[in-house]
Amino acid sequence: TKGSTVAPSQGQPTHIISLEWPCVVLSPAQAIVVYTDKEVHGAVGSQVTLHCSFWSSEWVSDDISFTWRYQPEGGRDAISIFHYAKGQPYIDEVGTFKERIQWVGDPLWKDGSIVIHNLDYSDNGTFTCDVKNPPDIVGKTSQVTLYVFEKVPTRYGVVLGAVIGGVLGGVLLLLLLFYLIRYCWLRRQAALQRRLSAMEKGKLHKSVKDSSKRGRQTPVLYAMLDHSRSTKAASEKKTKGLGESRKDKK
Q1: How many separate domains does the chain show?
Q2: 81-110 pLDDT, tens per residue?
Q3: Using omega within 30 degrees of 0 as the cis cutoff, is the peptide bond preceding 13 cis?
Q4: Residue 193 and residue 86 in one domain
Q5: Buried b / exposed e along 55-84 (16+ C-beta atoms within 10 A)
Q6: How far apart are CA 66 and CA 54, in angstroms?
Q7: Does residue 118 surpass a pLDDT of 60?
Q8: 142-149 vs 39-43, strand pairing mode
Q9: pTM reported for the whole predicted model
Q10: Looking at the structure, do residues 180 and 72 belong to the same domain, yes or no?
Q11: Which of 22, 43, 52, 235 has the smallest number of Cβ neighbours within 10 A?
């Protein structure tokens, strides 16, 4: 009882004793979350992987279990085709999948995937993955739809991705070509600049050399002129002396 009242005796004051019990609120366990692809495509005679993973607030338990169910296209009832429990896979011995299912999951990696071999048109339908990881057992299943074709069609997303990839690749190639041409042009300009600088330095050196040579030749020319003048004066003087001596003889 939440509280109790004691009846007073005659002539005694009334005392009320109330007993309050503490209120304990238990938080609900977090639900397990299961993930699968929305749809998968396969070709007749090939194989397809049905991926299943999960998230749980608990560590992976030794009692973890995976269950796969299959509902044919247009059918109402789903049948169990695969079960994993106590570390062992179990393929249900009913239906058309009993010899075509392969367990490829790993509970430690939170993976409950299976592979279906030798696909047929009759395999079209919805596959449901259910995971229990005690004490986390409350959650919603996840479904993936299988479509079997004679030849797997190219999906729009794949085509769009290929187109975008091709455009980006072309743009990157053009940018690379542009930078390569620019690099070669800059390198050639630098080489021409070095050649022009070398030529200018050579011309400057030559002009300095010529000017120094002309500076050295000037005194020599003056010396030669003085020498020629002195030689001419001496010859004139000698000629004049000879003329005078001839006159004296006469």
Answers
A1: 2
A2: 999 999 999 988 767 898 899 999 999 999
A3: no
A4: no
A5: ebeeeeeeebbbbbbbbbeeeeebeebbbb
A6: 10
A7: yes
A8: parallel
A9: 0.53
A10: no
A11: 22
Residue 8 has what DSSP assignment? P
Task: Output the CA torsion 81→86→87→91 (10° steps).
Answer: -20
CA-wise closest residue to 20 among 44, 7, 3 = 3
Phi, psi of 11, deg, nearest 5:
85, 0
CATH assignment of the domain containing 139? 2.60.40.10
pLDDT, residue 24, reads: 35
The confidence score (pLDDT) of residue 155 equals 59
CA distances 56 to 36, 67, 220, Å, are 15, 16, 108
Asked if residues 122 and 104 have their Cβ atoms less than 8 Å apart, the reply is no
pLDDT value of residue 215: 58
Question: Rounded to 5 degrees, what angle do the CA atoms 47, 48, 51 make?
Answer: 150
pLDDT tens digits for range 181-195: 989 989 888 888 888
User: What string of H, E and C letters represents the secondary structure of 215-237?
Assistant: HHHHHHHHHHHHHHHHHHHHHHH
Q: How far apart are CA 113 and CA 61, in angstroms?
A: 18
pLDDT band at 37 (very low <50, low <70, confident <90, very high): very high
Structural domain containing residue 53: 32-149
Smallest Cα–Cα separation from 32: which of 59, 50, 51? 59
Q: CA 72, CA 46: separation in Å to the nearest integer?
A: 19
User: Which pair of structure tokens corresponds to residue 30?
Assistant: 């977090």
Place of tokens 């397809």: 48
